[in-house]
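A reminder before we start the practical. When you read a complex entry, don't treat the lines as separate problems. The point of joint prediction is that each chain is placed relative to the others, so the output describes one connected object in space. Small molecules and nucleic acid strands, if listed, are placed in the same frame. In the example below there are two entries. Take a minute to note the order of the lines before looking further.
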Amino acid sequence: MASSITSDDILGKTAVDPHGDLLGVVVKLHVDKHKKTLQGITVDQGFMKPDLFVGIEHVRSFGVDAVLLNKMPYHLLKGKQVLSGEGKLLGAVTTVLIEDGELRALMVSKKTGAFRKQEIEVSPDEIKEAGQNIILRRKNVLEK
Amino acid sequence: MTKQEPILLSKRLSTMDNTTTVKDYFGKKVYSTSGDYVGRVYDVVLYEGAYVGLLVQGRRKLFIDKDYCEPETVDNIILKVDPVTMLRGKVVFDSEGKRLGRVVGFERTGVRNTCDTILVRKSLFKKPVEVPYADIETSKKNIILNKAY
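Here is the predicted structure of the whole assembly.
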């Protein structure tokens, strides 16, 4: 029983993504009623935000004070500003396209006039870093 | 009215194309390599007549050497590093998810963008704990260590 924990040790803990971002509080545990194994957890992201289900394969460890995840939820990229490798502001992420749990593309749009909008598609290979803002790789690096 | 081009009196330059002026840097936003906002450029530093770095106003005033800046950037300046000063205030978790506290300071031996230890304090009345910089696994929004404490 030394390595086992109870639901009390998980519920109410903060879920932390691999970047250290605090996602919210674990409010539910999902158990497969046939296999009797833990399927995942539900994270309450706070007021006016939808709950987030995290599969057990994306949980790195159940810690003393936090539940560490091994994958960043891609939907958190929405609304972030995107800068080119040269520092030019390209716009903000409006849509995150996810296919089979993997990031396929980001739709980035920027206002170019009162009623005009420019929209570009960014593939995951072009992303250098995604922190507070997203920085893309330099074009000459991609060409190489 | 079109802007008047300056008349060149130079031994070095024959055209003003591909040159930047100090004014071009003022007010530019500076981002770390992780994409975090660092501050805005409020001055440019010259040493013996040559450009050596930027003064940036963020949460604190910073001098950032030009070697830490990505070359040929437009509109905004992107750094090649995450400034160590940005560690302050981040929450620290160990590898087992234990919350150690917040970074309240760091100890450096020089002026380079590295530090030896970070000082982590759990609550106001507790003494800060020293954590070696080498124990940091990820330092983005918050810090996750590669060791259990």
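Discuss with your neighbour: Chain B has one helix and eleven strands. What might explain this?
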